[in-house]
C-alpha cells in the first residue's frame, strides 16, 4: 500500500471510525450514569468526552516515516486512528472508569500505557499515570446507520483534570521550542509533574477523609433519627440535613464509644421530659426542631463537662437543656 | 434514672416580703393576697435558676427533715402542695410568719420569699420550693425613638448571683398525681453552708426556718469520696508523676480546703483536666456517690490523710507526711527500670 492508497482507505473509513468513537462514548456514559447517577457522573466526568480522528499528515508520518518495524501491518496495527478522551476528577475516578471499560461486552480491551512511547526518546520524564486502552469491536455493530466491522479499533485515554492541564500546557511548550537538549527545562517539567501528582494525592486524601467524616456523621444521624422515631413518636422534627450534619459534626469529638447502645437507653429514661420540653421549645427555638437536638440532651447528661466547649451555638440554648434535665451547667459554682 | 430536678414545672407562685427585726421588736411580713402570674419566659428563666443551683453537679445538699410539728415548714408544705389558690395564699402567708418568728438576728438579711408549688422529675413528684431572695441593685436600659436611656432599680431579685438567694425544697418521696401528701424529703441550697466560717448564718435558714438537719453519715460519705477518688486516680491513663499530683490535690481538697462541703463536680473543675471530668462524673455516678454537695467530715480518714505512701516495684516503699509532701519527696526522673527520687532530709536511722 503506498501513501495515496493508504490515505484513500483512511478517508473512506473516517465516518465509520467517528461512529465507532461515538458508540463507545454513548456506552461508557450509559454505564457511568447507571452506577453513579446524574450527580455522580458530573463529579466524575469533568470535561465532556471528545472524539478525535487522526490528522492525515500525522498518520502518514507514524506509518511511513517513524515506523521502525513496530507496525508490520501499516494500516491495521495503528490503533489510534480514532481516539476518545475522558477527563475525570481525581485518580480514583480513573480506575473506576477503567473498570467500566474493561467489563463492557461491546468490545475487547487491552491496556496500552506505553502507547506514545515512540514520540520521545525519554518519555518517562514527562509521563504521568494516565490510562490508555485500545478497544476493539467484538461484533459487527451498526451505529447511526453506519456499519462498524469486527476488529475496528479505538484508543480511549483517561486523564485527571490535573493531568489534562499539565498535558495541554506542557504540550504547547514542548512543541513550540526545541528543548530536547536542555536538561534544566526537562527538570522543570519533571518538577511540575511531581507537583501535579502530589496535588492529586493530597486532594484524593482530603476527599477520602471528608467522605469518611461524612459517612460517620450520616451513621450517627440515622441512628438518632431511628431512635427518635422509636421513643419520641409524637414529636415531629424538620428534615434539615445540613443543620443536623453541622450539629452532629460539631459534637462528634465527644461522642462516647458506647453511643449506639447508650442513646436508646437514655431516650427511654427521659422520653417524658424530652417529649414535653422539646415540643414546647420547638415553637420558639429552631435548634429544637431538628432530630440532632436529642443528641445534645444525651451529651448534656453523659458529657456535661465537655459539651459547652463543643457546642456551636448560643450558650443560653444549652442552659435550657441542662435545666430540663436538672443538671447544673458546668462552672456554675465558680 | 433521671435527675431529681429534671422536668421541673411550676404550678403556683406567690411572693411575700420578710423584714429584719427593728429596735422595737419583730416587723411583720408584707403579705401578698394573690398568686403571681409570671409570663412563660419568666417562668422559664426561674426554672433555670432553680435547676442550676439544685441540680446534678450543684452545691445543693440532701437534708433530713427534723421538725414535723404542726407549725413547721414541712407541715405547711404538705398542705401547700395540694392546696387550691385560696388556701395557697393563706397557707403560704403562714410560712412568711414562721420566717418572721425565727428572724431574731438583725444581721440576717431581709428579702422576698418566693413560694412555688411545682412538679419535678420524670414521675412528676409534687414539691414545694421556698426561695428566700435578697434584693440587689442594678440598671435597666431602654431604647426609644433613637435614644438609649438607663434607669436605676433597687429591688432586683433572683439574678444569676446565687449568693443572694437560698432555696429549700420539700418533695414527695413517692409521686402521687393528687390527694393527700405523705412524708416529704428535703433539699437545700445556701452558699453559706459551704463556708466553714459562718455556721449560724446558714443554720437559721435550714434549721430554724425550714426545720431540716444535716444527714447523719458525713464521715462515711467523706471516706467514700476519698476512696473512690483515689481509685479513679489510679485508673487514669496518665504519668505516675501526674497521679502523684492528683493524689496530693485530693489530700489538699479534703484537708486544707476551707469548705464545709465536698462536691465531686467542684473537685473535678478545680483539679482535673477537662477531658477527665466527664469520666470522673460517670465513675462517681456508677459508685452512687451523690452528684451534689455532702458535708465534709474527715474523722475516719485522718490517718490516711496525714501520711502519703508511695509503692514502687521491688517492694520499695516511701512514706512521708502529707503536709508539704511535694517539697519533701520529688520524683526527678523515671525510666523503664528506675525512678530517681529526691528526698528533702537526711537518713537518720533504720527500723528493725
Question: Could you explain the architecture of this structure?
Answer:
The complex is a heterodimer of chains A (334) and B (352). By secondary structure, chain A is an alpha+beta fold. Chain A is 57% helix and 13% strand. Chain A has ten helices and seven strands. Chain A has helices spanning 3-44, 56-65, 91-103, 161-176, 183-231, 241-251, 259-282, 293-302, 307-310, 315-325; strands at residues 45-53, 82-88, 107-111, 131-137, 141-143, 146-148, 153-160. In chain A, strand 5 (141-143) and strand 6 (146-148) form a beta hairpin. In chain A, helix 5 packs across helix 7 (259-282) and helix 8 packs across helix 10 (315-325). Mean pLDDT of chain A is 87; it is low at 114-125. In chain B, the strands form five sheets. In chain B, strands 1-3-4-7-8-2-9 form a seven-stranded antiparallel β-sheet, with helices on both faces. A two-stranded antiparallel ribbon of chain B has the order 5-6. Chain B is elongated and about 80 Å long. With 352 residues, chain B is of the alpha+beta class. The mean pLDDT of chain B is 91. Chain B has helices at 40-54, 73-81, 85-102, 191-194, 199-209, 218-235, 240-256, 264-271, 274-286, 302-306, 325-328; strands at 9-18, 61-65, 111-120, 125-133, 136-144, 147-156, 165-172, 184-189, 212-213, 261-263, 293-295, 307-312, 316-321, 329-334, 339-343. Chain A binds chain B through residues 254, 269-270, 272-273, 276-277, 302-306, 309, 319-320, 322-334, and chain B through 1-9, 44, 47-48, 51-59, 120-122, 162, 263, 265-266, 268-269, 274-275, 277-278, 281-282.
What summary fits the major beta sheet of chain A?
Answer: 5 strands, mixed
Strand order within the widest beta sheet of chain B: 1-3-4-7-8-2-9
| Beta-strand residue fraction of chain B | 25-35%
Quickly count the helices of chain B: 11
- Give the end-to-end Cα distance of chain B, rounded to a whole number of Å: 55 Å
Structural class of chain A: alpha+beta
Classify the helix fraction of chain B into a percent range: 25-40%
Average pLDDT confidence of chain B is: 91
